[in-house]
UniProtKB/TrEMBL annotation:
The lineage of its organism: Bacteria, Pseudomonadati, Bacteroidota, Cytophagia, Cytophagales. InterPro entries: LexA/Signal_pep-like_sf, Pept_S26A_signal_pept_1, Pept_S26A_signal_pept_1_CS, Peptidase_S26. It is a single-pass type II membrane protein. The keyword DNA-binding does not apply. Residues 21-163, 314-362 form the Peptidase S26 domain. It comes from Hymenobacter persicinus. It is an enzyme of class 3 (hydrolase). GO terms for cellular component: membrane. It is found in: Membrane. This is Signal peptidase I. GO terms for molecular function: serine-type endopeptidase activity; signal peptidase activity. It comes from the Bacteria. It catalyses: Cleavage of hydrophobic, N-terminal signal or leader sequences from secreted and periplasmic proteins. Keywords: Hydrolase, Protease.
């Protein structure tokens, strides 16, 4: 019997599938197809925090392209949102007990460019495999090989002003004579939002330095200029947030690794800081060791690395030079005073990049009534 006759015979004698089996096979196929598309091509995300406002709003739903930079193979075979509790229920003691595979990035059709809005694995959740970490979305303001500096809130790259993209927001204290409902209505009409308030409208507070009444607001420059022209506004000043930033804190939230020579940089006055590139040979000194500590100790999987006396040690000896194994990027949120980004935890490794945010496909206003819940003007809006 020929092969084709065998197939015809099998088809003739096989029993028709039951409806239940047809449904099962269809569901399995749909799940497999959706999983493949999600891993290799596009994935949907929602914006939960205001760190990218006004470019992206809380309640925006995005499509993120993995094809731009190339899809990366999973590090863990079963990507599930495990917690310490669920790990314990499966008999695993920690995330390190999960099966973890080497990753490979397939070729993409675009390289990572300055001002791309990018989704990536958060770098500082080292207790989890990379593909089980929280996803963040920020703007890439500097690529590998750039030297970044922020002067009075303006980004400079390699000594020149960087191109401004998106709709940047700054946080101000707006002093007013009477912080009444009329002022709050004006804030609402100008799109000023405070997501900590039930109705989204900022509440009146006192300036901690002067005791004068007013509002802490985050808004783009055009809105700030509008309020400066209003007769009820006495002053509009940028809020200063003194914080300890990278690389003075070399390992964000996870160790006592502090720079031996602090820089004292702040949110609007930061750098200059070189962004490492693949193949670059670094001479390590106490002055720059904190910049490269996480790269050497965590991101590039070197053994025997520790932080001692303000220096990087490996196998019991101070490390004096190192060759960078992959490219790195510097990310900022467009809401510059309300974004936990590379200023806090440093560079994003190339193997942490998930994809490029392409467009907003849907958007819901969390503070609007039912009739105005959908932000129709944001549907299918490209992300710039």
């Amino acid at each position: 019997m020929s092969f084709f006759n065998f197939l015809r015979h099998r088809a003739a004698v096989s029993k028709p599938q039951s409806k239940a089996r047809e449904w099962r096979d269809a569901i399995v196929f749909a799940v497999m197809a959706a999983t493949f598309i999600r891993w290799s091509a596009v994935e949907a995300y929602t914006i939960p925090t205001p760190s990218m406002e006004s470019t992206l709003l809380v309640g925006d739903y995005l499509f993120v392209s993995r094809l731009h930079y190339g899809p990366i193979t999973p590090q863990t075979p079963l990507q599930v949102p495990l917690t310490h509790q669920t790990i314990g229920s499966t008999g695993l003691k920690s995330y390190s007990d999960l099966i973890q595979l080497p990753t490979y990035r397939f070729p993409g059709f675009s390289s990572i460019k300055r001002n791309d809005v990018i989704v990536f694995h958060v770098p500082h959740e080292q207790q989890r495999p990379a593909d089980l970490r929280t996803h963040l979305i920020k703007r890439c303001v500097a690529v590998a090989g750039d030297t970044l500096e922020i002067r009075r809130g303006q980004v400079f790259l390699n000594g020149q002003p960087g191109a401004v993209a998106g709709q940047l927001q700054t946080t101000y204290f707006m002093q007013v004579d009477a912080p009444d409902d009329a002022v709050r209505q004006a804030l609402h009409e100008q799109g000023v939002v405070d997501y900590n308030e039930p109705d989204g409208i900022p509440r009146a507070v006192a300036d901690p330095q002067t005791g004068k009444p007013g509002f802490v607001i985050s808004c783009p420059a055009r809105v700030a200029e509008h309020f400066r022209r209003q007769p009820y506004v006495r002053s509009l000043t940028v809020v200063d947030y003194p914080v300890a930033l990278f690389p003075d804190v070399a390992d964000f939230r996870h160790s006592g690794a502090l720079s031996a020579r602090p820089h004292g940089w702040q949110l609007d006055a930061y750098g200059p800081l070189p962004v490492p590139r693949k193949g670059q040979v670094i001479t390590l000194t106490p002055a720059n060791a904190a910049v490269y500590y996480k790269i050497i100790a965590q991101y590039e999987h070197n053994e025997g690395v520790s932080w001692q006396q303000g220096q990087i040690w490996q196998h019991g000896r101070p490390l004096t030079s190192y060759t960078i194994k992959q490219n790195y990027y510097f990310m900022l949120g467009d809401n510059r005073h309300n974004s936990e980004d590379s200023r806090f935890w440093g560079f994003v490794p190339e193997d942490h990049i998930v994809g490029k945010a392409v467009f907003v496909w849907f958007s819901l206003d969390p503070h609007a009534d039912l009739l105005h819940k959908i932000r129709w003007e944001r549907l299918l809006r490209p992300i710039s």
